[in-house]
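>> Question from a student workshop board

For tomorrow's exercise we were told to take the sequence and the ligand below, predict the bound structure, and bring the output to class. My setup keeps failing. Could a helper post the expected result so I can at least see what it should look like? The ligand is zinc ion.
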Amino acid sequence: MEYVLGHQGRLYKEADGEVYAPRPALAAEQIDETYPVAPELELVLSREEPGPGYTRVDLRAELSMAEEAHFSRLARAAQIAVWHDQHRFCGRCGARSKRAAGELAKRCPECELVVYPRISPCIIVLVTDGDRCLLAHNTRFPEGRYSTLAGFIEAGETAEAAVAREIMEEVGVEVTNIRYAHSQAWPFPHSLMLGFYADYAGGEICPDGEEIDLAGWFTADDLPQLPPTFTISRQLIEGFLNR
Ligand SMILES: [Zn+2]
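>> Workshop helper replied:
Here is what the output should look like for this input. Compare the format with yours to find the bug.
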């Protein structure tokens, strides 16, 4: 059995060590809770901040180097650690919640409310028109970096409706032929990115000026700086370029 160490929603590793350690580094009384991450991998949540022999895992850097299986296990461990940290008490009655038996959940010992790790579905979409694709610069991006459009799915909304709405809100164009491609767990802190392609149907590109400050059409021989290869946004763009 291997272990990954967490505290207050963050993951830690031994300084200069691997993320997964061969045995728990803590005494039983120092452990807040443990959760299964994968066969032979457990998340051990420490009551105390790990000492000077430990360093925080840089999740983004770690995921950028990860193979698919490692990516998925690390995303899961990170999301469970955040969920545990943010759901210490029952949201209905305020009692301290406890890990449920037999499933990955917390059950309130007073009112029996069950809560599962929080997952926030988002859409992420590449709009295309013939041999050109629509890429946008988010105000939070480094200068020169362009990506696909993305946004959270709202309560009661379908993923397809969210795709059309987000595109209209962020860049003001209409789309058609919205089709699902693939998804990626995105543990910042608990998103599930649902990747789509959509065909341009009309309208002039008009960035909303808040989230998106620049947007335009790009072709394969005229691409801006793109997101890192491990991201679903980059995978959607590569999928279009290699179609
Ligand atoms: Zn309760």
